[in-house]
Each structure stands twice: as structure tokens, then as C-alpha cells.
Request: fold
Amino acid sequence: MPIVTIRRSAALLVVIALCAGLRAGDTKVPTKGTATSSSTQPIQRPATSSTLPAQVPANTDQLEAFAEPYRTIQVATSDMGIIREVLVREGDVVDAEQPLVKLDDELTKASLEIAKQNLASRGALNSAEAELRLHKSRSEKFEALVRSGNARPEELERTVMEKEVAAARVLTAQETLVVRKLELERIQIELERKVVRSPLKGVVTKVHREVGEFVSPNDPVVVTVVQLDPLLATFSLRPAQTSQLQQGRSVQVMFALSDTPVRAEVELVSRVTDARSGTVRVKVRIPNAKGTCRSGDRCVLMLSDKVPTSPTAPAESELPRSAKRTP
Reply:
């Protein structure tokens, strides 16, 4: 029984060895007319980003920004009412204090006429002044009669008090006229506020209301005006790059659609470095008197002094111990 088992095991080992030899022969000897395995050919890897040209700066994205309006103002009215007239359209160039929208002002004009008439009314003042003159005359006469002994002092005292009351009435009439004058000025200001004017010279980008619409205190915006002279560009620079910039310094900005750089001025260099991006915000004011630069175009800040991008050599204290040893 053990001898049979040994023979069977030996036969099984011989079969396994033959199968292994046949597989090895198939792998090493390719058949005629077939191509070699792809694993034997060298693998071509794509070029990495380290092969970019040396003249392309590594921080190009930090020197790029988009020009935007220097100011964007949502022109609103402090009064509520119905719009009677819209004087501008989208795209119009407006000057400072130019009327944009007019509200309904019929009731305000009527109040203005009433205030003018009240201010012109002098009847109460004239009556008080006439009464004062009368009491002054009576007081003077009673003084003469008292000196001559033909009148009692009590009568003189009464006439003096009546004169003082008449003088107070004149003062009241004068004060009433002052209040009426101030009321007239208030109504004139209210009437002026019925006309919404542009706070600056710029371009109308949106008209929010049409004729007949009601303007409420919850939504008082009627027109959007942007200032395109100058333009404003906000760049995010590395702290090392901002060391050569300061407020008021002249710089050059190149627009993507132009071949000529534009001279601009640094308006702000933030004193705070953004913790997430590690950059500093820099605002540049770009003159645009002729309107050649368009808001929304991409622009690049051209720094005159180049900042080294390679890391600095390590200090002696930072070198490994093996580098410090002398040979």
C-alpha cells in the first residue's frame, strides 16, 4: 500500500513539471508572424509640467485681474411716489447732478403755492404794528398828563402794559413769518427731491423702474450708474511682490485686447495677508478719460522689478551635520 502511494505521487510530479515546461516555452518563444508582447516595448510617458518655457512666470495668475468700475451706485430716492418720467436709458452717459427720474409732484407743487401765499400775507403783522404805534402814542400822552398832574399813575401803568402786549403781538407776527419762510424752503427741498439726479459722471447700466410704477421705501432704487473713469483693478500678489509697491506709485497695466500698456496708479496695498491664499490685495486705479479701456476686460500688472522665485540658500545653521564637517 505505501509503495503504490509513492508511485502515484511521483507520476503526479512528473506531469506538473511537464506542464510548467510547456508554459515557459510558450512565453519565451513567440509564434511566427505574431508581434512581440507590449510588455517588452518601452512605455512612453507624457511630458510633465516642468517642461514649460522658462520665460513664463510661475505667478502669472497672481498678476492678473479684471478691470471693474471705480464706483457702482444704486441711485435711490428718499421719497415714495409714482414715477412720472424716466429721463435716461440704459447705456446713456450722464453728468453729475443730471436728472434721471422724476416722481409725481403735483401735491408738492400745490403745497408750495400755499406756502408762498402764507409768506406773502402781511395782514397780521401790519395790524400788530399799527396797534403798537397806537399804544406808544397813548403811553407818551399819559406820561405828559401824569407829569402835569392831570392823570393818575395807575392809568399810565395800564397804558405801558398795553404797549408791551402790542409789542409782543408784533414779535409773534414776525416769528410766524419766519416759520412760514422755513416751511416754504422745506417744501422747495421736497419738490427738488422729486427729481432723482446722478451723483457722479458715469454710464447708466440699468433702469429699475418704468413710468407709472410706484417707488416704496422698501425698494427705493431706480437707476444704476457706474463710474468708468477711472477703472479699478484688484490684484492678489505675493508679499514679496508688494514690497516694491506703495500707495501713489505709478505702475503699468497691460490689457489682453491691447498691445500698449496703460499707466496706472496704486491706490491701496492691503496691510493684511490673506491666511488662506497667502496673498496681499492690491488696488490699482486706471485712468480712462477716453474710454479706451473696457470694464470687465482681463488685465495684467507689469512689475518693473522682478522678484526672485528660487528659494534662498539655506543658512549655515540649517545645513546638515555632514555638510558642516571639513574633509
Residues 105-193 form one domain. The chain has six helices and 13 strands.
